[in-house]
Write a structure and sequence with these properties.
The complex is a heterodimer. By secondary structure, chain A is α+β, with helices and mostly antiparallel strands. Chain A contains 7 helices and 13 strands. Chains A and B meet through strand 1, helix 1, helix 5, strand 11 and helix 6 of A and strand 1, strand 2, strand 4, helix 2 and helix 7 of B.
Chain lengths: 277, 850
């Protein structure tokens, strides 16, 4: 057993733009070839950030021919490959807030409750948020979630009024009040202490990488320089900072071309231009 | 879950409040309008290898007052272990604030490539503090399974058990009291307590009888198979060809995946042999979607190509296998010299026989007569056996294209660094051992093992088998009798059962009968610990009905932390600790480390560890002197004994363990089977064997002269095959998926996990569903003569026509109609393997209204 001591904002609900590394530019790379859709990153996030029952900051989509996404019920697409046996292909797309360099969400908040730090992390100030949900609408990626009711958790939050009362996850992620928005914050409270976001260190596939784009020697910089990567709808002009290494193996030899799904102009989720350099 | 389910579990827990149901909207958190866009970066220069986590930022300087607006928060972080039956045995950081677990995190290994944790291990807090957690001993009120309980003291509980054990021993003998120690906790101390009591009392251990068919087949040849003969798990990243055969490791053994991904990054080829398009199959370079249960035929066709195209390593075959041995035509045994021991081979240079170990170039073909005895080299017998199994012939069994068989055999033979990892997908079949046999023969012909990147299966872990607690667990020299669960039903129902018996009536090592013999074996009580037997046992409905018949078992005790299916049918429930609530040590196969697990939090209410509970009963029975140590002291004693067995290396390993709680027994980059003498009767690999090993009784064997087959062969599945008349009635082969959401039935009610995986679904092919009028999302019933189980239909092109796949692990109370997934499995016994044939199963499916 060891005792650890971490440094957190005294008021976790408030505004925290005092990043330790203001000159950093944080980004994530997710390797869809290694991703097996196990949801470990999602559950890691859920547990570490004390996300209430019913809300997820990080979730795993199954790439499907249905561009409207997935449903948990059997009618939906979770884990459903594309095609007909044995001509099948499967890939996963883990998604969380992309901490865009040109975020639409921060531009619409009427009370400046959502803001972007110098290091690029887009944050929510739970003391200021009035629950108008303009930011939910503004985000073209649907990455923000809203506390429609008092957050419930198992095991239960002992006393939301008391910061030191029992709740799961980091101390810095106490229960939120009803009526505020929440989302991935790149585990700012960990990053500010030299740690990685929690989702990064748990991935069984080693498919998630996090680092500083301002450091040319960081793994994310190296990957962006040397590997083909994609983003989700960069044509929106949001400049997302989560990049994806597309899956090259999806079908066990029978059908490997899930990539062409992304090039078919009939598909709603494709953008119109291909940027090459 | 719905109200019925919630109250059902609540009743089982003896509480008013049941499990919290998850309120969640179906679309709110999963809908998205976005998807992947276009390439933005430059052309690829190749993929960087990533299998370690490097620090990406500089650490803060420690000490000093926090800056204004900041606070310092302390947490205790304990070293714990997830002792689960996924075998991944992750080191866990248990984070505790004010004496309560707040979160779990990955705890690094000395070899950081073994760092691991998963979605289940991240949800421990929901198990530790689950509202339905069992709190105190309870006795049933009313019939078994009625769900009414009254609280009792531990004293009363212990007294009841001890009295029953004594009384049953007096009337039926001590073997009539059975202890079932399952796989719900691989802690060595947790295993030690029940094992010790069973041994000193001479009770019956009802053993799991599963996971043993493929290994048996592999052992037959002498290579072990899967976890006992191969290389260390990280060695998979060194392979050039990886073959996941009946192995869905991305879900069932997830921590092995990144080693496979690393190998692929290096340019390795991944082949997946599986009827199912699993996530593992989706990552393959080549997926071979063979017919379920046809794997022995596929193996034989591969052997046909290896031999027919002379792709085998002749020098190795001659020197290190039984294949040059001369085999008598009359009885199939090896030809021996007059001394009755020395096995002979044919020496073409002298045109006579000589000791096989001395003949430089023994014949592998030909027919000879020696002193009037007609003989042939064993290789010729093998070649003759596989000659029929051309890829074209095999295709009618396997539905695999002949070109794929040839490609696979040639690629396997040409790739010295071939790593075959067979797993449970080909084990839970009546013909499962024949898979192990064929695979091990492939390895014996090619010598594709025993070096980095080349192996059959993973090993090199300390494993529960290597920890030398066995001697400590039988301090009086007496031991429990062992009865496989497959034979237990009859023993409970009738007081007799049929098992293979030692030929001399005593020692299986002197051979066993070819056919089972009926023996008296009354079982009058069972104490389940670490086991959810009622959920997992084959033909579970029949077993449940047996339990409900109160004239059969006088006492059913269940130790558990959560109200499982088995707890529901107990007479007496004992609340057990969670893994983090007592000290223990845990070892595994999938990594090489023995790990200390600390008591991080206090047990809730009156929960006690299995060691403590069994100790109380043992004390009542007069065996208390074996339970005086604390759990930490027992763990230490096990390590003292285990390291002592390692010779001169022992003391420093013991010191390392005492200091750090993490130690490995095998050298780094462990490679198995590097020697040239193997653990067979002859010391050579035995694709041709003079005797057939059986799984039960342990150490038993049947000579080939009694009429068993000395070579790999084909036997169809016992149920799931179209030749079976039953197939007309139940035309769908049922396999049970081991999904990421639970490990067997552990984690059955984690709210976070159930948000995304709320209820059982069955994968069914679009055409099969349409023929039955089943639409996506309909509730359906899988049924056959053994029972039925209800799930929601997931209709898609994913599933093979003629097959359905149902995940195991949900509890009866979580299904519509209170049905169990194993209600439709059968309990037909293969006496040779004594192994659960769960996947060798036929059902039909129909829509139901629930």
């Amino acid at each position: 057993m060891k005792t650890t001591e971490l440094t957190y904002p005294a008021n976790p609900y408030g505004r925290h733009d005092e990043a330790t590394y203001p000159k950093a530019k944080w980004a994530m790379v997710i390797d869809q070839d290694r991703c097996i859709g196990c949801w470990s990153c999602s559950v890691a996030c859920k547990s570490n950030n004390n996300e209430p029952l019913g809300l997820w900051w990080n979730r795993i989509l199954t790439v499907a021919e249905d561009p409207t996404g997935l449903d948990v019920t059997a009618t939906g697409g979770i884990d459903e490959p594309v095609g007909e046996y044995p001509d099948l292909a499967l890939a996963y797309l883990p998604v969380n807030c992309f901490h865009c360099d040109n975020p639409p969400c921060t531009q619409v908040c009427p009370v400046a409750a959502t803001y972007q730090r110098e290091d690029g992390i887009v944050m929510v100030d739970w003391d200021r948020c009035i629950g108008c949900r303009y930011c939910l609408i503004a985000c073209p990626y649907n990455m923000r979630v809203f506390n429609w009711s008092v957050p419930e958790q198992v095991p239960a939050n002992a006393d939301p009024a008391n910061l030191d009362a029992y709740h799961v996850g980091d101390w810095a992620k106490p229960p939120r009040p009803k009526g505020v928005v929440e989302k991935c914050d790149f585990c700012y409270q960990r990053v500010d202490q030299g740690m990685q976001p929690f989702c990064i260190e748990v991935c069984p596939g080693r498919a998630r990488i996090f680092g500083d784009l301002n450091d040319p020697n960081s793994e994310v910089s190296q990957l962006l320089a040397h590997t083909s990567v994609t983003q989700v709808r960069p044509d929106f002009g949001t400049e997302p900072k989560v990049y994806y290494i597309p899956p090259k193996q999806t079908g066990g030899g029978a059908r490997t071309e899930i990539a062409p799904l992304f090039e078919d102009p009939e598909r709603r989720y494709l953008s119109g231009t291909v940027v090459e350099s | 879950m719905d109200d019925q389910e919630r109250s059902g579990i609540a009743e089982a827990a003896g509480e008013d409040e049941g499990v919290l149901h998850a309120k969640f909207g179906r679309r709110a958190f999963l809908g998205t309008t976005a998807a992947v866009g276009t390439t933005v970066a430059v052309a690829s220069h190749g993929r960087l290898l990533r299998s370690t986590t490097k620090p990406v930022v500089r650490a803060l300087k420690p000490g000093g007052d926090p800056a204004p607006g900041l606070v310092r928060v302390k947490e205790q972080v304990f070293d714990d272990v997830c002792a689960n039956n996924c075998w991944q045995t992750c080191r866990i950081e248990a984070h505790v604030r004010d004496g309560r677990l707040v979160k779990t995190a990955m705890n690094p290994f000395p070899e950081t490539r073994y760092n691991r944790i998963c979605l289940r291990g991240l949800s421990h807090a929901q198990w530790v503090y689950h509202p339905a957690r069992l709190k105190f001993p309870m006795k049933r009120v009313g019939p078994r399974g009625s769900g009414n309980w009254r609280r009792v003291t531990w004293d009363e509980a212990v007294d009841t058990i001890a009295t029953s054990m004594t009384s049953i021993r007096g009337r039926y003998g001590s073997k009539a009291f059975a202890i079932v120690s399952g796989s719900g906790n691989y802690g060595s101390v947790a295993g030690y307590g029940p094992s010790l009591l069973a041994n000193v009392f001479e009770a019956t251990n009802i053993g799991l009888a599963v996971d043993e068919a493929v290994t048996l087949g592999g052992f037959q040849v002498g290579l072990g198979s899967s976890w006992l003969g191969g290389n260390e798990a990280l060695d998979m990243s060194n392979a050039d060809l990886l073959v996941m055969w009946g192995n869905n490791l991305t879900e069932a053994q997830v921590q092995g995946w990144h080693f496979v991904a690393d190998a692929k990054d290096r340019g390795a080829t991944l082949v997946v042999i599986d009827p199912n398009f699993s996530v593992t199959a989706s990552k393959a370079d080549k997926w071979i979607p063979l017919r379920p249960g046809s794997d022995p035929a596929f193996g034989l066709s591969v052997l046909n190509v290896l031999i027919g195209e002379k792709l085998y390593d002749e020098a190795f075959v001659v020197a290190h296998t039984t294949l040059p041995f001369l085999v008598r035509d009359d009885d199939g045994m090896f030809l021996r010299a007059v001394d009755g021991k020395t096995i002979l081979a044919w020496d073409p240079s002298t045109k006579s026989v000589g000791p096989a170990d001395s003949v430089a170039h023994p014949a592998l073909t030909g027919r000879y007569t020696v002193d009037g005895v007609a003989v042939r080299p064993a290789f010729a017998r093998l070649a003759e056996r596989v000659a029929t199994w051309t890829p074209e012939y095999a295709e009618q069994f396997t539905e695999v294209a002949p070109s794929d068989v040839r490609w696979f055999a040639r690629t396997y033979a040409a790739t010295k660094k071939s790593f075959i990892f067979p797993s449970m997908g080909i084990d839970r079949w009546n013909n499962g051992d024949l898979n192990g046999r064929a695979i091990a023969t492939m390895a014996a012909l090619t010598h594709n093992f025993g070096q980095p990147g080349a192996a059959i299966g993973i090993a090199g872990g300390a494993g529960m088998f290597m920890l030398a607690s066995a001697g400590m667990e039988a301090p009086t020299g007496t031991s429990a009798a062992s009865l496989p669960v497959m034979a237990a039903y009859q023993a409970i129902a009738t007081g007799k059962t049929k098992i293979l018996a030692p030929l001399d009536g005593k020692n299986p090592a002197n051979g066993v009968t070819k056919d089972p013999v009926e023996v008296d074996w009354p079982i009058k009580a069972i104490w389940f610990n670490k086991s959810n037997g009622i959920s997992n046992v084959q033909q579970s409905k029949r077993f449940l009905d047996l339990l409900k018949d109160e004239s059969k078992l006088e006492l059913v005790v269940v130790s558990d932390s959560m109200p499982t299916d088995t707890v529901r049918y107990a007479d007496l429930v004992l609340p057990t600790t969670h893994w983090f609530e007592n000290d223990d040590l845990v070892a595994t196969i999938t990594h090489p480390y023995v790990l200390r697990s600390e008591r991080a939090i206090d047990p809730p209410f009156e929960a006690k560890s299995d060691y403590a509970a069994f100790g109380l009963v043992a004390t009542k029975l007069g065996f208390g002197q074996y339970f005086t140590k604390s759990e930490a002291e027992v763990a230490d004693a096990i390590m003292v004994a285990s390291t002592a067995a390692l010779g001169s290396a022992g003391p420093s390993l013991l010191a390392t363990w005492r200091k750090t709680g993490v130690v490995r027994f095998t050298p780094p980059d462990y490679v198995g089977n590097t020697g040239s003498v193997f653990e067979t009767a002859t010391g050579r690999l035995a694709p041709y064997s003079e005797q057939i090993l059986v799984n039960y009784p342990a150490g038993g064997w049947i000579p080939v002269s009694a009429g068993v087959d000395p070579l790999p062969y084909w036997e169809p599945p016992i149920q799931a095959w179209s030749d079976n008349p039953l197939h007309k009635k139940y035309p769908l082969a049922l396999m049970y998926e081991h999904s990421r959401w639970r490990v067997h039935t552990t984690w059955f009610d984690q709210p976070w996990l159930r948000e995304v995986n709320p209820e059982p679904y069955v994968d069914i092919n679009t055409a099969d569903a349409k023929a039955r009028g089943i639409a996506p999302g309909d509730y359906v019933e899988l049924f056959n003569d053994n029972g039925k189980t209800i799930a929601r239909a997931r209709v898609s092109g994913k599933m093979r026509p003629g097959m359905v796949s149902l995940p195991k692990g949900f509890q009866r109370i979580q299904t519509k109609g209170d049905t169990g997934y194993s209600d439709v499995s059968h309990n037909w016994i293969n006496q040779r393997t004594m192994n659960g044939s769960y996947f060798d199963n036929l059902v039909d499916v129909r829509k139901v209204v629930v």
